[in-house]
Amino acid sequence: MLDKTIPYYHVLMKREEGKTLSKFVLPAQFKFTLFKPGDEKEWAEIETSVAEFNRAVDALVYFQNDYLPYIKELERRCLFIENNEGLKVATLTIWWCYTGVRRDPWIHWVAVRPEYQGLGLGKALVYEGLRRLLEIEGDGNVYLHTQTWSYKAIGIYKKSGFEITQEKGLGGFQNCDYHKAMELLKKYL
């Protein structure tokens, strides 16, 4: 869940190529699944449950506009964790962004339903997402965008080899908040 009691600053993170991938195992009562048409509704519900969107309909419109046009890519890049009852409880998308003309691999929209947080699902999800990303894209630099409100997730990303970067212009992000974010995050990381 996002901590909206603290100031919001953008945070860009980079995982440099060649880093060893730390393995985090998914608890036995859960399994990984890939996107199938119709899963966009559950994606929207998961993202709304962690307060990334105020309404599920807004999340659904975002997904339909930004991801559904690339259905074949979604089917191999949008990852879920399901519980034993088949409920999707977490998601992560392996995607890309452009920095100028350079196409970089990115991790997008990592979320675990609040009632399933603290079970190690986030760590396992990021590990599995990175493992699949390396299969699809090869070993190269990987990026993600997050925010100070997600300081708990930043800890997971750091355990997965990401470091906060002050590079500017990555994926269209100006990264103007770097110094403010770093000062604030000293209290939480």
From TrEMBL:
The keyword Lyase does not apply. It comes from the Bacteria. GO terms for molecular function: acyltransferase activity, transferring groups other than amino-acyl groups. SUPFAM superfamilies: Acyl-CoA N-acyltransferases (Nat) (SSF55729). Keywords: Transferase. InterPro entries: Acyl_CoA_acyltransferase, GNAT_dom. Residues 30-183 form the N-acetyltransferase domain. Pfam families: Acetyltransf_1. This is GCN5-related N-acetyltransferase. It comes from Pseudobacteroides cellulosolvens ATCC 35603 = DSM 2933.
